[in-house]
Amino acid sequence: MDKEKDNEQVVKAQPSNIGCFTIFIWLVGLMCLLFGLITFLSFSIINVISGLILIIAGLTMLPPTRTIIEKKLNTKLSNGLSCILVFILFVVGIGLGSSSSKKTNENLNNYPNKQVEVKSEQDQTQIAEAKKQQEENKKKQQEEETKKKQEEEARKKAEEEAKNVPAEYKSALKQAGSYAKTMHMSKQGVYDQLVSQYGGKFSAEAAQYAIDNVVADWNANALAEAKNYQNVMSLSPSAIHDQLTSQYGAKFTQEEADYAIQHLND
What we know:
Elements: H1 2-40, H2 45-61, H3 63-73, H4 79-163, H5 167-182, H6 187-195, H7 204-213, H8 218-232, H9 237-245, H10 254-262
């Protein structure tokens, strides 16, 4: 009687063990499927492969899909073999996913360093441009200082030369400026007036010094004389040109007379 009771207890215990194992394989299968789907949706090649491996492991573990696989393969998978196969697939899948996650984290950690490198390159470019601009400004300042120095030296030289200029030369220069500015005479006309016995009666040397150093706009003088011919004498442009260049007239050069005619009606 005792043996029969023990056998009955063993028989009754077997359905309970089978139920626990079924729950276990369902839990493991669903867990593999869940992790597989999550990993698969990471849109990384390694993660996609890892996700597929985990999904296959989950499908192999679940009873409905396991039955379909056994029918397709025409073989019977023992519970132990199934667990070993699923364990291997699970380890491989998790390993690939961890490797991909580690690589992603390394890339994310290196991203700030790359930003720092890019920022450093931009700073170096800005520093180089600022240095170049500074050098250009320094060069420009040196050129301006050199120009001022040359102008100062030229002024001092002119003053020194002026000290040694004879009084006659200074008078001739002053008279030449007056003829040029008030009477709008040509260069040749000023010279002739300076040396004329009816004019300044200066020496040829003094008159030439005055012509070489006088400040005058001969084109403007030619234009002023041309307008005078036009307004007072009502001459034609051709006649005005001849009068400007005539040796018995204003004695301007051809270029100065051409300028006056071109701007006669301005």
